[in-house]
Amino acid sequence: MKAFVTGATGFVGSHVARLLEEQGADLRLLVRAESRRENLAGLRAELVVGDLTDSSSLRKGMEGCDAVFHVAADYRLWIRDPKPMYATNVNGTAAVIEAAQAAGVRRTVYCSSVATLGFGYDRKPVNEDTPVNANEMIGHYKRSKYLAEQKAVELASKGAQVVIVNPSTPIGERDIKPTPTGRIVLDFLLGNFPAYMETGMNLVDVHDVARGHLLAFEKGRRGERYILGGENLTLKQILDVLAELTGLPSPKMKVPHAVAMAFAAFDQTFNGHLMRREPRATIDEVRMGKKFMWVDTGKAERELGYTHGPAREALERSVRWFVAQGYAPAYEASCPKA
Fold first, then answer.
1. Does residue 195 contact residue 259 with C-beta atoms inside 8 Å?
2. Closest CA to 234 of 224, 245, 242
3. Measured in whole angstroms, how far is the alpha carbon of residue 21 from the centre of its chain?
């Protein structure tokens, strides 16, 4: 099989590309000229320089391919100018699916996000059929991914061979930016977690997410969505596991949402707008934190044969990787220097 992958320089995309290579696929990877490429080290792949808004690079990359894995996305929870995010996440997704259809690709797997799902305030896990609409999307990232997913569903209804996967919050190695999820781990390692907010998320091993992409290609139904999740945990539970792994203290002080909102409003105004640097907390993050982003992976298990491992193992690999790469100091408890 010859596979075209977008986003292979990033976190999830690098794992998808490596798993494809392990299973014998010939790889063709779309990379931007300015992208960091350390996640491509050791991969046997043909590189196509371009981006999601460059139709010629998409045509060149997909020529002769059997599969497209569209994993690239602009994943930021703070952005001053949202226009590039919508261009990448919405227009870019449509461009990839349409180019794959024109190239006669057997199937496209589009990596969406659980950010598009209909989470509530009751801690009840949601699934692919939980009602949701655009008004429930908090922040530009969620809105752009929701619109992109709607476009993918629309194109599938018109005949495009596309399957959608919705990873929860992946964790593991090679999170080079890091992503907002990896930032939780890194902030803990750096001592930037003096308190916590009552919230919850679903943590999934990035290896399981990559495997779910390949299962979706093999077994998914056109136009269907499949949640690729792991364990439903509170933020406090995650921090407690990190404490056990590192020997660092887990925060004991719980901050009310109102206090967190006040801090985020100040931080976003001062750092985000006045100092023009990324704030440590944003209003949208606190608003999202009021909802427990817990999911039910039953559909993927039934239709794809998807399974997931424990979040603890992925958290341990994440910690070890951040330490080994020099993002954080080593901790003798579990993370000796590489």
1. no
2. 242
3. 21
Q: What is the phi/psi pair of residue 280, to 5°?
A: -75, -30
Provide the 8-state DSSP code for 204: E
For the whole prediction, is pTM greater than 0.90?
yes
Q: 270 phi and psi, to 5 degrees? A: -70, -55
The alpha carbon dihedral of 239, 243, 244, 245 has a sign of positive
* Domains along the sequence of the chain with CATH: 2-171+204-230+294-309 (3.40.50.720)
CA atoms of 110 and 230, how far apart (whole Å): 19
Tens-binned pLDDT, residue by residue, of the chain (338 aa): 999 999 999 999 999 999 999 999 999 999 999 999 999 999 999 999 999 989 999 999 999 999 999 999 998 866 778 899 999 999 999 999 999 999 999 999 999 999 999 998 889 999 999 999 999 998 899 999 999 999 999 999 999 999 999 999 999 999 999 998 899 999 999 999 999 989 999 999 999 999 999 999 999 999 999 999 999 999 999 999 999 999 999 999 988 777 766 765 666 676 766 767 776 767 667 666 678 999 999 999 999 999 999 999 999 999 999 999 999 998 765 454 44
| CA distance linking residue 191 with residue 179, whole number of Å | 18
Burial bucket for residue 141 (CB in 10 Å: 0-12, 13-18, 19+): buried
